[in-house]
Each structure stands twice: as structure tokens, then as C-alpha cells.
Amino acid sequence: MKLKRRGIKRGRIEIIPLIDTILILLIFYMSFSSFESKEKRIDAKMPLMQTKMTTVTKLELDLTLHVFDQKRILVNGAEFDAETLRDQMRQFTTIPEQQVTVVIEGEPDTSYQAIISALDACAQAKLTKVAFRPLPEKTAAQQANAP
Amino acid sequence: MKLKRRSIKRGRIEIIPMIDTVVILLIFYMTFSRFAEATRESALVLPTSRAGEDFKKLPQQLIVNMYSSDEVSIGGARYKVTDLPMVMRTYYSNLGRIDPVLAQQMKRGDTKPSIILRGSHDMTYKDLSEFMRICAKTDLRDFLPPNSPAGISEVTFTALEQK
Residue B72 forms beta bridges with which residues? Predict the structure, then answer.
């Protein structure tokens, strides 16, 4: 009896699974980009600070925010937290013909998140004229030398 | 004379151009994510905020990724915050070659040098204070109109959208 030879199968690229794979990859990349939290920008136009950093120029209504942490922010001496600060700051937007300048200051160990929360409250109240009062150079140097 | 009717061509999806298109889109998305990573470090954890506009980088803005005053990253290279004046001067001097129109606008005073600060959420006010001090001291007057004050006054802070 004669045996039939099996025909050699020629390798070929399967188009359909290829399209499936590429589409899945594409959907993955597109979804990934939208799942990522949106990055926001908060512009701060700061009055130019002198190199000595002792004064902030031209303050029509000086509003000082001393930030200790997110739960303790002093506004001209009155205490607020990050949530109540927003409502407080909104009151200043109703002042007519008045340019409000906000000066933010903090303790050396105040977290950046707390500073951004204060800045966020200002931005929500449409107060964009913001200045930061830097720490005195001595304090900064002392902090740097501290163990 | 009898005219022959043209046979109606049946519409069908061309597989090869479709694959080409999909692959190009895929490459585009992959490349784009890489470029975003280079200037905006993905490892950096930003603070969160409710307010703010969508992130947009203007051509005259320099993105500074800051972990602390000792660790600052600009365009993928690592620096200390004290190196910022040198980096900024290099950036704005190169701007004349890359974008002469923008450099001229700056020289006329139409646009101002500006920084986008992407600060890590675990940074402290001491680090920010150091950054502000350096910004105020940075002298870019060579690229600005005569009698301009020294220092950078425009800083944009970035944060993640609070949900």
C-alpha cells in the first residue's frame, strides 16, 4: 500500500488575530491616557521680590496666609482649615475696586500639599496676585545644618 | 448601440491600509507618552487641587520637576536648586537659536520668562522657599528689555485634579 505524503504547511501571518492584538494595545494606551488624573495649572503672578526678601512691593490689601498644615491656616491671625479657607477667601472677591494681594508664608516643615491647598483656595476665589514670603535665610541655613 | 452597464463594485474593508493606520496610531501614542515622560517626570507625585486650568506649556516656559531643594530635574537631567540660575540662563540663551522670534519678543518685553514648577507633594516649605529665593536672584536681564528687574516673577504651579 502506498502512503500519502502529508503536504507541508506553509507558515503565514494570521491577519485577524494581528488586528485584534493591535486594537487591544491601542485601546489600552488610549484608556491609560484618560485614566491618569488630569494635571492642572495654577498661575501665580508674583510681585517681584527683592533679593533681600524683606518686603513685598505694593500691597493694596495685604492678606497674609500663614500655613502650618492643612488643618491650620491663619488668615491675618484668624484660624481656618483648607476647607473653610475657601469660603473665607471668596469674601474678598466681593470687595469692589480693591486689589487683594495674598502673601503666603509657612513653617520650614509645612508640607507642599498644604501650601498648594492655600493656593488652591486663592485660585478658587479668583485671587491670582500671590506672593510667597520666603523663610529668613538664617532659618533656612540653620534648618539645612540641623541633623 | 447597446451600452454596457458598469459592474457595481462592492465596498470592502482594505486590511493592509487599516493595519498601517492602526500601527501608526499605536506608535504615535507610545512615542507621545515617552515625550511627556521626558519633560514631566511621571515618577513625581504631585499635590492635589480643585482649582486650576488644564495643563498647558507655553514656549517660553521651563518645566522644573522638584523633589527637594537638593534634587531638581529639568529635561531629564538632575540638578540642585542652586544650579537653577545657570540652567535658566542656558535655556534662555539657547532659545535665541531655537526660536528667534520668541527670543525677540522677550527682548521687546512682550513675553516674560516663566517657570512651571512641578513640585513633589512631600516637599516642604523650606524647599519652596529656597526655590523662590533662587528665582528672585536669577538674573536674566541679558534676554529682557533694558532696565528690566532681575528675577522671575511668573511661576505656574501644577497639581493633580482632586476628584
Answer: B66, B79
Domain boundaries, chain A: 61-137
Residue A41 has its nearest CB partner, among B15, B52, B120, at B52
Query: Is there a contact between A42 and B137 if contact means CB atoms under 8 Å apart?
Result: no
Interface predicted TM-score (ipTM) over 0.90: no
Provide block-wise average pLDDT over 10 residues at a time, chain B (163 residues).
69 79 82 64 78 80 89 88 90 85 86 88 90 86 82 84 75
In Å, how far is A41's CA from the nearest CA of chain B?
4
In a shared domain, residues B29 and B62: no
Contact between B136 and A111 using a beta-carbon 8 Å cutoff: no
| Report field, pTM of the whole predicted structure over 0.80 | no
Of A37, A38, A113, the CB nearest to B54: A38
**Residue A111 DSSP code:** B
- The verdict on residue B7 lying in a domain is no
Q: How many domains does chain B have?
A: 2
Distance from CA of B1 to the nearest CA of A (A): 47
Q: Is A137 on the interface with B (CB under 8 A)?
A: yes
Whether residue B126 sits in one domain with residue B71: yes
* Domain A61-137, CATH: 3.30.420.270
> Would you say residue B6 lies in a domain?
no
Nearest residue of A to residue B163, measured between CA atoms: A37
